Amino acid sequence: MGRARSARLLTPGEVGELWGVSEMSVRRWISSGRLPSVDIAPPGCRKPRTRVREDDLLNLVDQLGGSSARNRDRSKSP
Question: Which of 1-15, 16-30, 35-49 has the lowest mean pLDDT?
Answer without folding.
Answer: 1-15
